[in-house]
Amino acid sequence: MITAREHLEEVCAELAKCPRLAFDTESNGFYAYKERVCLVQISSPTEDFIVDPIAIPDLAALGPLFADPKIEKLFHAGEYDVLCLKRDYGFRFANLYDTMIAARVLGIKELGLAAAIERQFGLVISKKLQRADWGRRPLTQEMLRYAQGDTHYLMRVADEQKKALIEKGRWGDASEAFRELERLEPNVKTFDPEGFWKLVGRQELGGAAMAALKEIWLYREQQAAARDRAPFRVMPEDLMTRIAQALPETKEALAAVKGMSPYILERFGPGLLACVERGRAAAPLTRPAAAPRQRMPEDEWKLFEALRAWRKERAEKDGVEPVVVMSSESLRQIAAHGSRPGGDPLAPLSELKKTRYGDDVRRVVAATLPAKPAV
After folding, report:
1. Residue 154, number of CB atoms within 10 A of its CB
2. Domain assignment of residue 290, yes or no
């Protein structure tokens, strides 16, 4: 367990000599108002470490490990970990390997780490702590043992996967996906004060009720920030719309709203009644004009749908998920290029994808958008 910056720096100096390292993180988005990384687990070929970012706010010593192209970094389902580490610390990544991505490329149906460990080693790993509050301190021994297990087996899982990827001629596909993982950038979420327009059930609300819903929406966010809790743990969205619809004027009427719990009633009852009162007194709300949706031109849409159908057939033939053949974004780009006069439908593809699927893509384009006779 690493809880001091000096200790982390010493360990990282030794880890920098390793050709490969396994990583995982645990965050507290299920509990906190603002999610943060709460643990970083590291396994070298001989040791396991758990870094406590709450005790060590400065994790800069990890940066060179993540960025070093000579060190292979292993994750399982690493998209979330990479995005969180980029968001919280600005780390950059090179030479990643993701055991879940590799499993998907291999056509394995059960993609979870516990399934991979059981399949490979016959060990049954409990996942009951997946939703634990990793921001709490002190951590229990059970939590630490669980966290350790998320990296302890990754290298041996990856060793078997690499053999299979090479045997099946799929190493290039996996490598491309790993490079895409390295390039992902976090999209930091911010509170939308107009987000209440998107709530399920708001279509049934009238003027005063809609104004009350806005007040409740803003109030919940204020309470979540003040208490450092995830907003949905302060109050569920369906309860918010039912309160707005009922427009209760008394604590008793508020208590009668379906889904109202004693906890919410006691802690937030006065605030919710004040929201309803402000809603009743507010001017009618006008929904902000939505940005016009941009639709694909007809030929582009036809080609996109034809490519999706081809991708599904090819994935079934190859025994993999469709995304392994090609991402939906790649299909959109192909459709955009292929539907333009003189456009090259293969332009968005890597050399690997061109070699493997180029002939198929050209046939789909030709069958969907026959060449128009010259005028």
Report:
1. 26
2. no
Clarify whether residues 179 and 203 are in a common domain: no
DSSP class of 139: P
Q: What are the phi and psi torsion angles at 311 (to 5°)?
A: -60, -40
Residue-wise burial string across 226-250, b where 16 or more C-beta atoms lie within 10 A, e elsewhere: eeeebbeebbebebbbbbbbbbbee
Is the bond into 69 cis (omega within 30 degrees of 0)?
A: no
| Separation of alpha carbons 231 and 225, rounded Å | 8
225 and 266 part of one domain: yes
Per the structure, the complete domain to which residue 326 belongs is given by 298-368
Helix (H/G/I), strand (E/B), else coil: 21: strand
Q: How many domains does the chain have?
A: 3
The pair of structure tokens assigned to 90 is 């600005």
Residues 45 and 165 in one domain: yes
Find, among 93, 111, 94, 114, the residue nearest to 102 by Cα. Answer: 111
Can you give the C-alpha Rg of the chain in angstroms?
26
Boundary residue ending a domain (140, 161, 183): 183
pLDDT band at 372 (very low <50, low <70, confident <90, very high): low
pLDDT of residue 374: 47
Helix, strand, coil abundance in the chain, percent, nearest 5: 55, 5, 40
Residues 13 and 137 in one domain: yes
pLDDT tens digits along 112-147: 988 888 888 888 887 888 889 999 999 999 999 999
End position of a domain, from candidates 281, 311, 327: 281
* CA 100 – CA 74 distance, rounded (Å): 10
Strand partners of residue 244: none
